[in-house]
What we know:
The chain is mainly α.
Amino acid sequence: MVKSEPTTPAVSSPAPASAVPLDAPTRTTPIHPELANIKVPDGPLPSYCYHPVTCQPIEPKDYQTELKQLEDEYKSREAALRAQEQIAKEVKDKIASAQRKREEVQRSIDKKVKERDTEMKVVSKFQETKASDIPS
């Protein structure tokens, strides 16, 4: 029998902050004019300095690699603003698409519930007639 070496647990980073609901009262400032329903806290930092999911302040040092890539990709402020507008529109479209899918799924669920209720009524009527047909 081969013994396996005990493994040491990996060093884990601090637990990530949990997501803050979009309708939380702490969310007051839209992250972008195109995305008015996604808000972050109104605090001492500009809105782009808050994480859009957790509403925690973003530490630039944690994202140095990504920031450098963005600086290399978008050389001018105008190019960065155009890209920001394009991404905002894409996010808005994705949100709308997700909402449509949720509504479609909800309609499907409602339809299935209605079908189940109808079937249950038919079954109960059938059982009532079967019970009344049994001679006493």
